[in-house]
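On to our target:
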Amino acid sequence: TTAESILTENGVACGVKMKNPIGKEESIPAQYVVLAPGRGGAEWLSRAAEELGLPVANNEVDIGVRVEVPNAVMDPLTKHLYEAKLIYYSDTFENKVRTFCMNPGGIVSEEHYDTPSGGIAVVNGHSYAEEERRTENTNFALLVSTKFTEPFNQPIEYGRYIAQLSNMLTGGGIMVQRLGDLLLGRRTDATRLKKSTTVPTLKTAVPGDLSFVLPHRHLTSIVESLRAFDKLAPGLYSKNTLLYGVEVKFYSSKIGVKNNFETDVKNLYAIGDGAGITRGLMQASTTGVVVARDIAAR
């Protein structure tokens, strides 16, 4: 069952229109409505906000790769901080590049999003609490933030297009390339990948060339940040460092809200990454707590 639209009456939220798997619609009345669709629902939320006349800001879109290296490379950071938050402003373009979702002893994974033009596969990563399930590698996202200006106002579509381009070249999967091959301007093939001292944890990843996927601005910023971060984690800027593409964060349209996350429609709240309010699980969870307390106080 999916949420189709938000029901309002005299400027006040009063429920949600739902549609079940066989297409039957049903209106669910509610005194309060909380919009928390997650990154996968960011595009739906943007359309819903437009229908309600809510202000929507053209937020940054984050596009990049997932980096995988041996644990020993990142141990100087992860032994002290499980997830190091690193930010670098690239030398050439001065774009903000940041690390995100660091997974010591983790695995690289593939996730799927349903879009109006079909499904897309993007890269992600996670780790396990159980010691016996830990791997020899650490992975993390390396994302380039771009804030578009007028007249462009389709950051979600832009990110989706980049992901679709990667899927086109791999036959629908995730691409992987050695950093050394990228720097030499050549494609990583199966033979070169086998020579890598970093063994990929995503076994279904297809060797390829990220320069056919990511814009020059993004690739340059990624390479420059890896070179800088190598000073903190020696060995990161290595020919055997693996880059998986692409990683896209779909939280690009920021809904206008008050301090309590209530929108201009009374009793209608918007929270989390999908609303462009936060950028991470912990922050998103916190917005839910704030809204729950606000509703309870009423």
Observations:
- The longest helix spans residues 281-297.
- The chain has a mean pLDDT of 94.
- Residues 260 and 291 are 6 Å apart (CA to CA).
- Helices lie at 42-52, 71-78, 155-170, 179-183, 190-194, 216-229, 281-297.
